[in-house]
Amino acid sequence: MPIAYNIDPMQISSKVKKQLRWQNNLFVILFLTIIGLLAWLSLHYEFEADWTNNQRNTPSEATLNLLDKVAEPILIQAFVSGNSKALSADIEHLVKSYQRFNPNIRLSFVDPSREPKLVREIGIRNEGELLVNMSGRQEHITVATEQELTNAIQRLANKEQNWLLFLEGHNERSPYGDSNFDYTSWLGIMKSKGLLVRGYNLASNPNIPVNTSALVIADPQKTLLAGEIRIITDYIDQGGNILWLIEPGDLQGLEPVAELLGVEILQGMVVDPNTQLLGINDSRFTLIPEYPRSAITENLDSMTVFPTSIAMEFFGSEDWDAETLLETLPRTWSETDEISVDMTLDPGQDIPGPLVIGVSLNRQNQPEKDINSESNTEDEELLGENENEELDSITNQQRIVIIGDSDFASDAYIGQAGNLDFAMSIINWLTNNDNFISIPNKTNTDSNINLSKTKQAIIGFGFLLVIPLSLFLIGLIIWLKRKKH
User: Fold this and answer.
1) What is the mean pLDDT of the chain?
2) In Å, what is the CA distance from 100 to each residue of 106, 186, 396, 403?
3) From CA 165, how far away is CA 200, in angstroms rounded?
4) Model pTM greater than 0.90?
5) Do residues 79 and 126 make contact, with C-beta atoms less than 8 angstroms apart?
6) What angle do CA 339, 343, 347 make, to 5 degrees?
7) What HEC string does the chain produce?
8) Confidence class for position 375, pLDDT limits 50, 70, 90
9) pLDDT at 372 over 80
């Protein structure tokens, strides 16, 4: 805009006119230059500020600390259909709040209707689910919230070399077997979650490594040696985590383990006539449609299927905090006789339902494992290069899970109903991957302004009278001054 000067037109010479013209031109050039620089800066740099009262558009301090430590690229795939604009905007807003503090995060949207094969492979069920990929591993999030996303990134960033060991040497179910009763599919899912899994033979490796997250005992078919039983009980006494999957029949020498854990395995096989209502003609199958409240099953909303199960009771000491994971329907019973098509409940011999076929145990303040114990070659491989490094995996809580069935996680049945979700929930709990970062909820504290009646009157008086009157007086004064000249 041109510059105004109070100069008498009669006193303006050609030289003064030229100077004024140059000044006006210089002003325009400088003004356009500044506008151009601001435009260039806006294209190359971004600046955002969260002016909300409680910083609700900024991730929590826990999330920021995590993002500051993660250097690997993170790809987030959001499964949202094209017509869900509002949901897409919410997810994009959430991820952008992370990208402000970590530029290595990328977001892409996938329309489930256009990628049905990918949706089936991942197990997408609802709109708005996320798949977080980092360092060749992935985490599946069903609800796009800061707490879920932060904890998924935390689990993917966890590089602790903690192992999940499957007991072998007694014809157990194997994660590396090729039979339909083995756990190959389960192994693939665990590896995609970043878990380190391997078989472990106590006869050749009598010391369970100190960086073992949990020991899995999956339906041994041959009796364990007395020395192997002692190693397992010592491991439990030292605070080790156990997943014990039991089938009806002989415990193969593991009775001392059951006694140590305070669990009694009941006789017979669970029979569930309710399966006929769903078209399953084999009453040896047990259906669990609902779950008692526990850390393992709190997010499980699908029915689980157990092909051949056995019931149990907990009678342990107060040292253990025991929770029921799986309880059958009332019409079930434990059949102690031969299984037949026309079998019925015998009140004098069979055990009527509901029956417990899964329990979890945990206790606090267990003694630390001996990290100075001698280890063989296999132990050194598990411990890694630095044997003297103190292991972060030693926790103050010991966790045990006992399930009266081992088929539910096998290749033949892990894809049925909610079996996979239940199997992974067990593993996450045993390996302490359920220790989520707690993200406080941020409410819109600044969305409402509460003013007293006095303040409301002052504001109303100011806008309705003071400001208009002031503007009128200012205009009147300017008009009078100009009129005098």
Assistant:
1) 83
2) 11, 37, 36, 45
3) 6
4) no
5) no
6) 110
7) CCCCCCCCHHHCCHHHHHHHHHHHHHHHHHHHHHHHHHHHHHHHCCCCCCCCCCCCCCCCHHHHHHHHHCCCCEEEEEECCCCCHHHHHHHHHHHHHHHCCCCCEEEEEECCCCCHHHHHHHCCCCCCEEEEEECCEEEEECCCCHHHHHHHHHHHHCCCCCEEEEECCCCCCCCCCCCCCCCHHHHHHHHHCCCEEEEECCCCCCCCCCCEEEEEEECCCCCCCHHHHHHHHHHHHCCCCEEEECCCCCCCCCHHHHHHHCEEECCCEEECHHHHHHCCCCCCCEEECCCCCCCCCCCCCCCEEECCCCCEEECCCCCCEEEEEEECCCCCEEECCCCCCCCCCCCCCCEECCCEEEEEEEEECCCCCCCCCCCCHHHHHHHCCCCCCCCCCCCCEEEEEEECCCCCCCCCCCCCCCHHHHHHHHHHHHCCCCCCCCCCCCCCCCCCCCCCHHHHHHHHHHHHHHHHHHHHHHHHHHHHHHHHC
8) very low
9) no
Residues 18, 291: Cα–Cα separation, whole Å: 90
Q: Indicate if the pLDDT at residue 262 is higher than 90.
A: yes
Tokens representing residue 27 in the block:
């002003």
pLDDT tens profile 75-107: 999 999 988 889 999 999 999 999 988 999 999
Tokens of 242: 């156990």
Rounded (5°) CA angle 34-38-39 = 115
Torsion of CA 418, 424, 428, 429, to 10 degrees: 50
- Written as six digits, the tokens of 248 are 């009806």
**Burial per residue of 1-38, b for 16 or more beta-carbon CB atoms within 10 angstroms, e otherwise:** eeeeeeeeeeeeeeeeeeeeeeeeeeeeeeeeeeeeee
Q: How far apart are CA 116 and CA 109, in angstroms?
A: 14
Residue 134 in tokens: 């980092």
Please list, in sequence order, all residues whose beta carbon lies within 8 angstroms of the beta carbon of residue 154, skipping any fewer than 6 positions away: 66, 436, 437
Phi, then psi, of 259 in degrees rounded to 5: -65, -40
Alpha-carbon span 213 to 205, nearest angstrom: 17
Q: How far is CA 165 from the centre of its chain?
A: 23
Provide the Cα torsion 246, 257, 398, 363; round to 10°: 110
Q: Which residue type does 34 have?
A: I
Q: What is the pLDDT of residues 276-314, one digit of tens each?
A: 777 777 888 999 999 998 889 987 888 999 999 999 999
